[in-house]
Amino acid sequence: MFCLCSAMRERTVPTELQTLYIDFDAFFANVEKQDNPALHGRPVGVQPFDSQYSGVIACCYQAKAAGIKRGTKTAECRDLCPEITLLPARHDVYVDYHKRIIACIERHLKVEKVWSIDEMECDLRGFTRAQAIEIARKIQTDIRLDIGEYVTPSIGLAANQLLAKICSEMEKPNGFVVLHPADMPGKLLNVPLGDIPGVAKGNLRRLDAAGIWNMEQLLAISAKQARALWGNIEGERLWAQLKGYPVMRPPTKRRMFGHGRILTREWSYPDRAKECLRLLTCKAARRLRADGFYARKLSISLSFIDGQKLGVERQFPPSKDDFRFVGEMDQAFTAMIAVSRSKRVKKVSVTLHGLSKPEETPGDLFTWSEENATRTSREKLSDVMDSINSKSGQALIHLGPREALPGGYAGAKIAFGRVPTDDDFAESKMTRKIRPRARL
């Protein structure tokens, strides 16, 4: 890979395929269909939890054909598609399928980067066009044979990650698109600007104002113009990738640890909402400690059923223990409930930020005082709890009571860019053994 400046200066673009990108189709819903033969041939939607007030977070292509999309509420799903099966999400099952898929792919190519639970990238450098296509076809075949016919991958092959990702989305579901450097721009010209990853609504408005309405016009501008339109280096990077250049971005820096949860009716009352928030806070703290960070700030946000939204940020000395974070959370939550119009909570979220590593923390973190001695003992206790829970694979020791939350997990939900680990599911092993029954 070349950095942007050297690639543009030398005007060098690959002459062979460089990247294979896999994007699985309707992954959550199709895993459910693969995992349960009773669902074969049926439209399926996946919800965050089993509730008539919930919206779907994923649906299969049969459901999409009926007009269902992400966020469609249960009642509307029933109206649009009376035969649909709605299931609560099983994140541990999706992660298990993800691991099996990675193992299947790596019989042929090393997975260079996992972008999300259902998107991954492989390096094709060193292979000819024919070899790359043969490998990709074998991967597609092995996934069908080893994982199942319902878990379908759409595969794109191109000169870089962005182009390969665009190709993987061109012919869904179960697509296979090759955009060789010798064929550029070719099929790329048919892609609407709004379908380019990284082109947000604000970018589209600026492009429209500049008289750029299609891919051909975008490719015709200069790198400098692209940078000016975006207002930063990302415009130039995107333009270079669309031209076929390999672009290396600087590594991202961890800025926060957080979790959120939409609450069921039973969990919407203040005492239950606070209990949910406590469990999410402890989960975020455990992840923070596992990655070796301290946090100086905690932010809490609440959304209420009447539409009101409140947020509080609290600051404190660099900390990593559950006791500090839960105490700060409790005070923030109590303050927001006191001034809220409604006492029924729709959504809670917590974020630990202001991060630093031990070597980056101020000297007063280690200055002896009674307060610091207490903090140090609490940090050691939190570390011991983490160690025991990690070794056991279960949440055997925790701060306060623990019970199953809506959706069954305290913070182990799948998010783009993050695939939960086995430790994330430790608490579910204590509370969640039975497969949810499909609502047919």
Structure in words:
- The chain has 440 residues and is an alpha+beta fold.
- The protein has a domain at 256-402: DNA polymerase, Y-family, little finger domain (Dna Ligase, domain 1), CATH 3.30.1490.100.
- Helices cover 38% and strands 18% of the residues.
- The chain has helices spanning 4-10, 27-35, 61-65, 74-80, 91-105, 129-146, 161-168, 201-209, 215-220, 223-230, 233-242, 270-290, 322-339, 370-392, 428-431; strands at residues 19-24, 44-47, 58-59, 85-88, 111-116, 119-123, 153-158, 176-178, 256-262, 294-304, 309-319, 345-356.
- A five-stranded mixed β-sheet has the order 5-6-1-7-8.
- Strand 7, helix 7 and strand 8 form a beta-alpha-beta unit.
- Helix 10 (223-230) packs across helix 11 (233-242) and helix 12 packs antiparallel against helix 13 (322-339).
- The model is unreliable at 429-440 (pLDDT under 50).
Describe the protein's topology.
Layout: H1 4-10, E1 19-24, H2 27-35, E2 44-47, E3 58-59, H3 61-65, H4 74-80, E4 85-88, H5 91-105, E5 111-116, E6 119-123, H6 129-146, E7 153-158, H7 161-168, E8 176-178, H8 201-209, H9 215-220, H10 223-230, H11 233-242, E9 256-262, H12 270-290, E10 294-304, E11 309-319, H13 322-339, E12 345-356, H14 370-392, H15 428-431
Structure summary:
This protein is α+β, with helices and mostly antiparallel strands and 440 residues long.
Alpha carbon gyration radius? 24 Å
Instruction: State the total count of DSSP E strands.
Output: 12
At the third CATH level, what is the topology name of one domain? Dna Ligase, domain 1
How are the strands ordered across the major sheet? 5-6-1-7-8
CATH class term of one domain: Alpha Beta
Percent of residues in helices comes to 25-40%
Backbone shape: globular
Number of helices: 15
The topology string of helices and strands comes to: HEHEEHHEHEEHEHEHHHHEHEEHEHH
Low-pLDDT regions: 429-440
Major sheet size, sense and barrel closure:
5 strands, mixed
Judging by the overall fold, what is the CATH architecture of one domain? 2-Layer Sandwich
Whole-Å distance between the termini? 50 Å
Overall pLDDT score = 86
